[in-house]
Amino acid sequence: MNEPYLEHPSEEALERFLLNMSPEEELEALETHVLACSYCVDQLEYLETQIAATRLALQMLESDQAKKKSVDQNSSWKSWFTIPRLSLAGAGAALAAGVLFFSLPRDVNLTAFRGTETAIVSEWRPLRLHLNAKGLPEGPILVELANNSGSIVWKGTSAVGHDTVDVTLPRITKSGPHFLRLYTAPQDASGGELLREFALHAKAVW
Amino acid sequence: MEWGILVSQIKVGEETGMEQLYRLFSRGIRYYLCRQLGPQELEDKVHDTFLIVVNAIRRGDLREPERLMGFVRTVVRRQVAAYIEQAVHNRREQADLETGVTVADRKENPEQEAMIRQKAALMESALSALSERDREILVRFYLKEQPQDQICREMDLTETQFRLLKSRAKAKFGEIGKKKLAASGIFSVLVRAQAG
């Protein structure tokens, strides 16, 4: 009874046989035994069903998991769209738009000298002014913004170039008439010479 | 088993010897041929194989009676090779006449298929209860058909660990599965199918 094919093969070996994974030596002994062993044929039939069911179950499980993964991925962005989140997002967007709106400078062309015509500018918005500087010598200048009572509310520098002076003003926070004055760059302590004055009226204009 | 007596009986054409040979090998040969070639004309193939074995014994081709089991295996394997060769030849010959190719039907019968499906559905819940690592072993082995040494290498397992983990995983889902299978009555179907 030394012959290996006279002993029942292990379940592992039978499984390997069914999965076509038996090494040649094992295969020879196993096949020889199985051909004459009804018990092992029973085992093989049982294992065959077991393996088929295991495979099917694993396939179903794998496919369920793949589906779940894809649903999770979909729902992760879909679940974001809840009413409170959308409201919050809407409010955030409105706030961002407001901030953007008020932080973007408004372009204003001022071509008239102080007189009967007064330019209307937006209150609470930065202003980018394009001032008529025709006849003024090119070079650096001082710019001042005074309110209706004559108080200086802002000072800055700019330059005359191509008959224009571009000035970016911060927000004017008080409505009412304002005056923008251009001075030559100061040579000494006495200050610069007034070159031009423009009138503007700050109003809540969107 | 006294192989010498059996071989002598067959050699002289004793019916008891033939019956015993058939009783001993018919189940295994049927299973083997069906596994290799499919269920088509299975009974004819089993019969042909027996004829070849008996004739070879009578001719005295089997010199060592204790080698009968190995001898039967050799005959069966040759038969399988011959059937496959014939099928290939037929396919070549009939290629001009037929559009399709005949392949062995290895599908289970409807009852078996239904049983496997039910079993699989129950196993699925049991398998989902396994740890990620245990399940990976089963997926690699049964689904991807990776050889044991590859699984061991890639999952950093010794051969013993692999065997233990696999049998533990199988036992675990077998336990859960058995309870559910018993409750569903699949075992009785299985018993009937095997008895048939």
How does this structure look, described?
The complex is a heterodimer of chains A (206) and B (196). In chain A, 39% of the residues lie in helices and 29% in strands. With 206 residues, chain A is an alpha+beta fold. Chain A folds into two domains: 4-77; 105-203, Sandwich (Immunoglobulin-like), CATH 2.60.40. In chain A, α1 (11-18) packs across α3 (38-78). Chain A starts with 10 loop residues before the first helix and ends with a strand. Residues 112-116 of chain A have low confidence and may be disordered. Chain B is mainly α and 196 residues long. Chain B folds into two domains: 3-94, RNA polymerase sigma factor, region 2, helix turn helix motif (Rna Polymerase Sigma Factor, Chain: A); 110-195, Winged helix-like DNA-binding domain superfamily/Winged helix DNA-binding domain (Arc Repressor Mutant, subunit A, Orthogonal Bundle). Chain B has nine helices and no strands. Chain B has helices at residues 3-11, 15-37, 42-59, 68-94, 110-128, 132-143, 148-155, 159-184, 186-195. The two termini of chain B are 27 Å apart. The model of chain B is unreliable at 98-103 and 186-196 (pLDDT under 50). The A-B interface holds A 5, 12, 19-21, 28, 31-38, 40-42, 44-46, 49-62, 64 and B 24-25, 27-29, 31-32, 69-70, 72-73, 76-77, 108, 112, 115-117, 119-124, 126-128, 135, 138-139, 141-143, 145, 147-148, 163, 190, 194.
Give the low-pLDDT segments of chain A: 112-116
CATH architecture name of the largest domain in chain A: Sandwich
Helix content of chain B: over 70%
| Helix vs. strand class of chain B | mainly alpha
Amount of beta strand of chain B: under 5%
Q: Note the total helix count of chain B.
A: 9
The rounded distance between the terminal residues' Cα atoms of chain A is 104 Å
Coarse structural class of chain A: alpha+beta
CATH topology of the largest domain in chain B: Rna Polymerase Sigma Factor, Chain: A
CATH class of the largest domain in chain A: Mainly Beta
H/E order of the elements of chain B?
HHHHHHHHH
Main sheet overview of chain B: none
| Strand and helix order of chain A | HHHHEEEEEEEE
Query: What is the number of domains of chain A?
Result: 2
**What integer value in Å does the Rg of chain B equal?**
23 Å
Kindly state the number of beta strands of chain B: 0
Count of alpha/pi helices of chain A: 4
Inertia-based shape of chain B: elongated
Strand content of chain A: 25-35%
